[in-house]
Amino acid sequence: MQAIQTPHYPILFNNDCYSFLQETITPDKYSKVFVVADSNTSQLCLPNFLAQLATEVEIEILEIDAGEINKTIETCTQLWYALTEMGGDRKSIMINVGGGMITDLGGFVSSTFKRGIDFINVPTSLLAMVDASVGGKTGVDLGPIKNQVGVISNPIAVLMDINYLGTLPQNEMRAGLAEMLKHGLICDKTYWEKFLDLNELTTDDLQQLIYESIIIKNNVVTQDPTEKGLRKILNFGHTLGHAIESYHLDAEEKTTLLHGEAIAIGMVLESYISFKKDLLTLNEYTQIKEVITSIFGKTEFNQTDIENVMKLLSHDKKSEFGEVLFVVLNGIGKASFNEPVNNELITEAFHDYLA
């Protein structure tokens, strides 16, 4: 597959990834390589990755516990100390091998250690491949609040070995579809329609869909790299989705949701809001709801759950001057941003989702 060139770095695929590493990580450029992985990718992906990391530069492995609950400043502090104790300097490079948690956190650690060292992201989950691979967003959660601390900082490359998808459980693969569906809904109706019958998809189809999804996101980010305007449309489903994810992460009686699972719920809710604002037709909204719930099922919410989710909205990064702003759909394949929504309509959206 041909490389995708973002404004700041290339996204390389399959065998080209390892050719790039061999050409780039040489003793004249880098003093030490730090490879960051979590306890899952360390076991499932790292052996294959290290076997193909042919370099004379010294390699150190840094393993952290898996799970969104560990995407914290405390984990960053542990890594900063480890980098210091292992002799990391300005000529060190970090390679983050894992899902979105690893690329977000590892990118943030790299961007702040010694005021910034080079890093490479190797996304191993479908979600990370189509979402975290583009745009340079790094960061960590603050308690249950998603991505509250971070910077936009670009890697020198993203390496996409599709074979790592074979290590994923089914729910992780399904979660990755959420961001792909989102890209179709906000930018490309034809792309969205390719997901209307998932039973027909082959492995080759999936590889092509991943490629197209990355191109869609890259086109948006290229026009607005620091999210001052157009890039905000990539947050469709995330205003409510992030609040739902945070609530399920923090509430002991709730089952933790994967990021993509929460965003899928958010997309249904925010599609309903778009419909009630006369921006989507009933047929379009019904199609979106049916496609997404057929893939993800439904998550139950009682009135207390809904109220707690709405309290978390005030922490949303897209809030401005105390007002929570949403991305809405103007028909399938088009979106607009900075749309205010009242609490009554949000509650109504939850009730319709559950109907």
Automatic annotation (TrEMBL):
The keyword Mitochondrion does not apply. Residues 176-319 form the 3-dehydroquinate synthase C-terminal domain. It is an enzyme of class 4 (lyase). Keywords: Cobalt, Lyase, Metal-binding, NAD, Nucleotide-binding, Zinc. It holds the Pfam family DHQ_synthase. Its EC number is 4.2.3.4. GO terms for biological process: aromatic amino acid family biosynthetic process; chorismate biosynthetic process. Catalyzes the conversion of 3-deoxy-D-arabino-heptulosonate 7-phosphate (DAHP) to dehydroquinate (DHQ). This is 3-dehydroquinate synthase. It comes from Flavobacterium rakeshii. The lineage of its organism: Bacteria, Pseudomonadati, Bacteroidota, Flavobacteriia, Flavobacteriales.
